[in-house]
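WARN retry 2 of 3 for item q-0093 after timeout on previous attempt; input resubmitted unchanged.
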Amino acid sequence: TAACGFTGRDAMEQHDVQELCRVLFDALERSSTMLADTIKSLFAGQVTHYIRSCEAHNGKVHESRRSEAFLDLQVPIQGCKSLDEALRKLVEPEVMDGDNQWHCEDFGAKVDALKGLAVECLPKILCVQLL
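OK item q-0093 returned
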């Protein structure tokens, strides 16, 4: 347990599989650059969080994007009958309208928008954390 960064007290606490993977990957990455590169090449993927105006304003569709790497994909499954359904729901954009409109900095006003997640690159080995 010490090799993975757990103290004696930590060993007595319950940890989930995702947390164990994270601790194990961190320990392996610290131990070797080659292992760090291997972990990233096998388990790292890329997602983009976006908010996009529904209509063009002044001839332009405004958008805010933020990309991030992941080692596990967190997928809410409540109300879904299958993992396939949950994954489809994960990438289905949320409509931001009415009282929930997006304040677009570029346009200087609240506008109807779509807020979502786009999977840009899947890893060779996909770890899914079911929420």
